[in-house]
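Researcher: We're reviewing a set of sequences before deciding which ones to prioritize for further study. For each one, I'd like a predicted 3D structure that I can look through quickly. This is Mechanosensitive ion channel family protein. If possible, include the structure in token form so it fits the rest of the review sheet.
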Amino acid sequence: MFNLNLLAKFGPIQNQLNKINWKNIGDLLLTHLFQIIIITIIFLALNRIGKSILNKLLAQYRTINGGNARGDTIFTVAMNVFKYSIIFFYVYLILSNIGVPVSTLIAGAGIVSIAIGLGAQGLVSDLINGVSILLEGQLRVGDNVTMMTIEGTVTAIGLRSIQLLDADGTVHYIPNRSITTISNHSRGPQSTSVFFLIENLDSIEIAKTALRESLGHLHQTEEKIKSKPVILAPFYDDDSHSIGIKVSFKVSRGYQAAMQTMVLDKILQALREKQISVLSK
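Model: Here's the predicted structure for Mechanosensitive ion channel family protein, in token form for your review sheet.
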């Protein structure tokens, strides 16, 4: 039944293909070889000029708006649309030039039959989801996101797929139709924390007081720290199964590691003044 249905869907296409005089097309191909070469050169030139114009427009956008991430996203999508448009019109002109009735072939087969027969449902889903993601501004090039349990940095946004670069350098190509949930970690301040152990738990209240004095105004003097640090002590850490001190705070996106290092340095300095030793895990 499946094969009969599949043949029925391809029936209109086969009828149109049978009507084509392939010998005549072969003669036309040789006759119009020079024209094909000229068309190829023109489209290569259009491709190069178009990419140059898009690059200049992106540079102007960055200058005016000062936003690299959004500019890169718009540029990626525009390049994809331009590339597919160039390919489509190039193939259409070449086929028309050698006598293939492209318009008649498409009209006779029917758009629905072609979409079903060639299995284009996935392509259509990719395009629709890709446009939705872009219009809603769910992510940009450079954002750190999680998709389908894969965490990484968005390196390209296409009409059919999204590319993610994870921490070990692996590039993941995720079809747009497969994306059901996007967790964007690059919108707004990011929560981060520092957990550490002290040698003597009896000194935990002294340590807490010292840290409040040292870190209490840090968010007012350091612009990358977006909230007053919260000191939790005693705190039980599930990962290490240990009791220690946890300092939580929010930072500007992309500065988690740098701010963690700075805060940890201030923590060690404050505890050293109180002669409280910190243990390594």
